[in-house]
Design a protein that fits this description.
The complex is a heterodimer. In chain A, 69% of the residues lie in helices and 0% in strands. By secondary structure, chain A is mainly α. By secondary structure, chain B is of the alpha/beta class. In chain B, strands 2-1-5-4-3-6-7 form a seven-stranded mixed sheet. Chain B is elongated and about 85 Å long. Classes of the chains: A mainly alpha, B alpha/beta.
Chain lengths: 162, 184
């Protein structure tokens, strides 16, 4: 391989390397920034949003003014101070009420349907698009017949006259 | 071939929809009338509250007794409807040495409740639960809610909503004798 070949190859690879670098930096920034704040106040705030008010319809503990939600808001900081993890705190409320207290359904039992359906729909969609693209790419290319060319010539002639 | 394939796809979509409907139907159940703590035969949570009369009310003081815990307040209409049954039930059993009954205020203030209980002639101890800690530990979902606790501390009977005197008698008897609870 000559020096010119190497330079040419490097020039071709450079944009791809730059793109790869940008992607890596973006992923690192996303991962770092999406790491949850571990402070007790931030944890309590998150848990208040992750738990549903046990006596309301469609309201999180954070939003509800029911006595039960208020009691949970009072109780969460005490549990955090006692050293319970977020998972343990969520489990404690599930034990006290039921799984409906979780704003995000668990991924066990029948709740698996809630998680599986979107994935299934995505897979079906991708497969469907793939099949459609395959069919279109296999369709024979249309070629102009003599009549088609005559029509085009006639149209151009009319345009020129106009 | 295309028609056959379309039929198969339609059939598959139909099967998925029916399966989804069945899953939803299975998950949708009518609201229970028995508290979760009772359904699971859980141990009643410990509590210590300030009574409206200034005396402390503690679950520890009722250890080895069969006791009734009633969550209520002054503004709840079903609580008022239940009151005559509670009064009659308490009058019938208050002299029994192995019996106790407490009311726990849910979502109401002490001053209002003091006036209310005096006016209504409620004579069983009533505790103030200012931050809802006791109601949360029982897992209450509203008021009135009643729990009958056996001498071993297990919440054996209870009800979400109003209870009749007959039910209360039945549950007290069941709790004392280690029997299963049924509604009358």
């Amino acid at each position: 391989m000559t020096a010119a070949d190497t330079r040419s190859r490097t020039r071709t690879l450079l944009p791809w390397l730059a793109l790869g670098l940008v992607v890596i930096v973006a992923v690192v920034v996303l991962v770092v920034r999406s790491r949850p704040d571990p402070s007790p106040a931030a944890r309590a705030y998150r848990l208040e949003h992750q738990l549903a008010c046990p006596v309301c319809e469609g309201q999180a503990v954070f939003d509800s003014n029911s006595p039960q939600a208020a009691a949970i808001r009072d109780d969460i900081p005490k549990r955090i101070a006692a050293g319970q993890s977020d998972g343990e705190i969520r489990s404690a409320y599930v034990a006290l009420y039921n799984e409906k207290i979780l704003e995000t359904p668990s991924n066990s039992g029948l709740n698996i349907v809630v998680w599986a359906l979107p994935v299934l729909a995505l897979i079906l969609g991708v497969v469907g698009i793939g099949l459609a693209v395959r069919r279109w790419s296999r369709a024979p290319r249309l070629t102009a017949t003599a009549d088609d060319e005559h029509i085009v010539r006639k149209a151009r002639h009319l345009e020129d006259e106009a | 071939v295309t028609k056959l394939r379309t039929r198969w796809i339609a059939l598959a979509v139909g099967v998925v929809l029916v399966a989804f409907g069945v899953v939803l139907a299975v998950q949708h159940r009518s609201e229970p009338s028995v508290p979760r703590l009772v359904q699971e035969h859980g141990t009643a949570p410990a509590f210590t509250l300030d009574g409206l009369d200034g005396k402390a009310i503690s679950s520890a003081a009722m250890k080895d007794k069969t006791y009734v815990v009633n969550f209520f307040n002054s503004w709840c209409i079903p609580c008022r409807q239940e009151e005559p049954a509670l009064k009659a039930f308490y009058a019938e059993h208050k002299g029994e040495s192995d019996f106790a009954m407490v009311g726990i205020i849910i979502d109401d203030d002490a001053a209002t409740m003091r006036t209310y209980t005096e006016a209504q002639g409620i004579t069983w101890p009533v505790g103030v639960d200012p931050h809802g800690a006791a109601s949360l530990s029982f897992g209450t979902t509203g008021q009135p809610e009643t729990y009958v606790i056996a001498p071993d501390g297990v919440a054996v009977c209870g009800n979400l909503g109003t209870s009749s005197q007959a039910e209360l008698d039945l549950w007290l008897n069941a709790a004392r004798n280690g029997q299963e609870c049924t509604s009358s």
